[in-house]
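Project channel, design review

CF: Before we commit to the Schumannella soli constructs, I'd like one complete example in the thread so the newer folks can see what an input/output pair looks like. Taking histidine kinase.
RD: sounds good, go ahead.
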Amino acid sequence: MRPRRVCGPPVRGQRQDGAVTFSSRAADAIARANMPRSGGRSWLFSVIWGAVYALGLASMFASTHRAPWVWLACAVGVIGWILRALIPDTMSRRQLAAELGMIVVGGLVAFEANVLGGVPLAVGLVLVIGRLERPVRAGVVAFVLAVAALGAGLLLTSSESRDLGGVIVGSLAMLIISALVGVSRRQVNAAELRLRELAEQRRRAERLDDHARVARELHDVLAHGLGALVVQLDAVDALLESGRVDEAAARVRSSRTLAVDGLRDARRAVDALRSDETDAAPVSPEAATAALAELIEAHRALGGAVEARLATPPRALPASTATALRRILQEALSNARKHAAGQPVAVELRRVPGARPSMAAAPVAPADHGRLVLEVTNPLGAAGAAAGTGGGHGLAGMEERVSEIAGAELRTGVEGAGTRFMVRVEVPA
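CF: and here is what came back for histidine kinase:
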């Protein structure tokens, strides 16, 4: 036999190679990632800084004589700075044009205005390189343009200013530092975007887990309750055809009891979905065993033969473990009624002291109480009346439940030379 095996819990929301993939909405998120946290006030800060810069230039020009073209270039740089702050992010091309204009005029007047005129170059270069939605080649082009503008500005510098070696060194240092700041800003924006993408993936994984949990509970309640009703109603139909009205009436009353039990089970499922099962109180050993015995008696009431041996757990079980054992037994009995009608079912709950499943990832508890093994087997037989009512989600639901329990293991499959179906689950005792 080659049974299916599921070990839990799995690691969700993470690629094994650590790679991060961006969704189709990443382009929109990139634009948001470049927005400062101050939101709509960022443009106001840029305008204020531009105005302060303009006042600084005016103060410098008032104390020294400069050529008219220097005045004009500085004015264009200030206007470009302010316009760049006012252009919305949806107009990326206009923003880029303003930034490149700042780079050009800043480079032209960097030497004539004693480096202060080159501030627009620094700001424009940081903005172009730091924008994450722009290709890297845009930053390279901006850097080359800045170098060319500085070279042209050096040629335009008056002869009496050519001995200002410190100004030249300062301008080159400003160029390099601006490029590095732009690269750093781009990396920060990329990291923020990656974190947002990971957070979105985590939220999506949580939503999918919630959906799977709801689907699992619905399946367990409906498959067990409605499947049992189908068996009872088929029996009622057969009894009525043979004229055994009293027995048919007894079956109808039994069907009502099943419906009431199904409603009660549905309420328990709703309560479980509304609460965090990890915070639920542990289930006592007696209560855990009684819940399994109740399912066995219900199967017998439907005409099924069950040979049961239920050992009492050595200690209280976590609510998730007790629920998983009960739901797995419920699904196994329901499958036996569907696919092996009339065949006897063997149910055994036993404790295996000190045993471990064959998986390297099983955690070692500080106090080893052994393991609980629930095994349900039945011979293969003819399908029952409810065989076509399932959607094939029962085994998947078992696997999901086991995957949420640390150190648990599930095996399902056909054994005994293809004559018997087995469901076996191991959980920490």
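RD: helpful, thanks. Residues 26-202 form one domain.
CF: The first strand starts at residue 4 and ends at 7.
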